[in-house]
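TEACHING EXERCISE
Course module: macromolecular assemblies
Task: Read the component lines below, then compare them to the predicted structure of the full complex.
Student: A.B.
Group: 4
Components provided:
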Amino acid sequence: METFIPFLPVGIFFTAIILIALEVFEKSLIVLLAGTLMVILGFLTPEEAVEAVDFETIILLMSMMLLVAIARKSGVFSWMNVRLVALTRGNPLFIFITFSLLTAILSAFLDNVTTILVVLPITIELFKGLGQDPKPLIFTEIFMSNIGGTMTLIGDPPNIIIGGARGLSFNDFIVNLWIPVSIGLVIAMGIMILCHWQSLKPIAGDLPKLMISTALIRRLQYLFIRLNLQKAFVVKSVLILLLTIAGFTLQPVLHIHPHVIALFGASLLALLCSKEAHIHELLHEVEWTTLLFFSGLFVLVAAVEQTGILKQMSMVIVNTTTSLPFILLLIIWISGLVSMVFDNIPFVTVMIPVVSGIEAQLAGDPHVMLLWWALSLGVCLGGNGTIIGASANVIGTDLARREGFSISFMEYLKVSLPITCTVLLIASAYILTRVYFF
Amino acid sequence: MQNTIRQFSHLLRQTEMEIGTRDMSLLILRALQDAIRVFSGKTVESFIKKLDCTIAIACSTEPKFALVIDTLYQFKDSIVTYIPEMPTAQHPFADHRHTLLQCIDRIIAHAEDDTLLLLSHARSLDMRGKTILIHDHSHTVQDVLWTLRQDKQDFTVVVAEQDHEKTMGSIESLTDHGLSFTVVPSYMLSNVEKEVDACFIGGLTLKSTYDFVVDTGTSAIISECRLHRIPVYVFMTTSKFSLWKSTKKETVQVHRHRRSHPTRAITFDRLKFSHDRVPLSSIDTVVTEKGVHSAREIKRIYTHRLKERLQQEKRSLLTIMDEGGST
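Instructor-supplied answer key:
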């Protein structure tokens, strides 16, 4: 019996993961219960459990959710959508490229789900109105949101966890990931445009179609004008958002942790906009279940870490091969493949001690930091692989279904798998180039 | 082509529901300007052929929108006026783009002039000390009320409550203009009928069957007004006339919804209709940009405009047939 006791936390952990994957119960409740069980069974003391929770990550997530909630309420995203739509002048290709890039850029600074909720409805409406199938654009925007979110510390929750665990700054992510992310964005968008060129051809010579297109844009602008936006509210939201991002960028100079910067930005904006948006309403917009899920997960992984099994995993990897390039490719592809089908948050939380262990074993290698970038690229880009790979995928396809465009698992897979593998190949090529040439 | 007609029909229907007929036609004109700015045709003549196709599409939508069709025909006629026809020559489109845009500006200004003319004719109505009943969410009726108030005519307004959104639209407009009003559910109007002195209606269109197409519920209100000899006024510019032969008596759209009883296991069908039809003979006075008319006068004006439109359509059809209808 005593032989099995050290494996009990592992068993509890995997049971929790399976229940989460099967969506039997709400995932935050599963991890909270499992975490509490770990403490009750004595695998962690209550103090150790509290210490295991990375409050920096929780606060950063909460603050960004609050910032985005206030910005959404101000209507700044609707304003931005309408301005961009007008710029496209009804050209289907311009609409496709503009909103794909917008999705990528926004998701680098907002969470992927919010980005999809902001951008997808207007693009579905435009393409539907033009009589075009919006599915190519829906797919592309989902891909863009996951790829774009890979580039920054705050773009995707796995990056927040990795950044918090390893002390990586906002700029570290951009400097190290902008190349594979930019190439991935261009390639993914290029493939989708080539495959759907017939429906994206210019319509400048077709007056009836052109008129329908420009009328749709005018209608959106007209409806937007009636929204009665408060200029001051919009300006405050934009300024504080930009200030917060500037704070992240200047973090090496300011020597202030990202979560402090984010909390300051969120509190300041909430205070300045307290007349337009009451704090009680805003707190409803914070995904408390997600934050509880993260907290419970940290406790679970801490308990598993205590068994020593994660350290042993990292030693097995290093003992099998000391070839850093091989280990990097393993991390990218295993992370990518796992993220396609499972929630990448638990996976990345478990991988952090493993990667830390590998880093410690290979401490002399000048490229050892690439381990973290390989993990980030694998878990974030892999999320595009299937319809369940990331929350943005689920939300995006759900929105599409509500508008009458049902996307099945296989239909999504046929498009997403080749593109995800291509982007993971690009990430692999980048990492290997860094190892061998820089 | 069928796909384009379907898209256009859907767009016009949705837009008309959201912003009303007058604003919708302005939106279409502005959209046409935007399209002209990026149109890549080489000559004005090729543009006119595409315009004829666009007009054919507008004439095929379900339902047809008379104001949209009228403005497109006006635009086509104005191109011919401002760019001299030279059968052997081709006018470069880029050189005349600005002229085409100005043609549309003139049409918009003309439409605004028509509205102002209608309002100036409406001034001749004496509503001092009277109670005016309104029902639909016509912008024209709201403008008429505001014009009469600006003329220092003192009256009160009773709003017959209908669809929530449309009634709120009327309430917002009356409040913005500082007009005093009372709201009464339309099915309770029998309780206030004795106080009502006039009924103001804005119609969507007048059809070749000499029926006005109006908001749902208006027909019942007008019937009540007839019973109690309350004069009914319709305010509409002649550009809204449906200048084609109506092939069906009823083009009202039926929306069938399945609903559930809130407390018992009962499901039932609930029908909603898009519009009512009111015969011209039920209306006492029609105010247009041409003046204040009786039903008989409007019939004459309508017949004349219908003849003109049928000739325009013949000319357009010949152009499309000559070129083989490219779209």
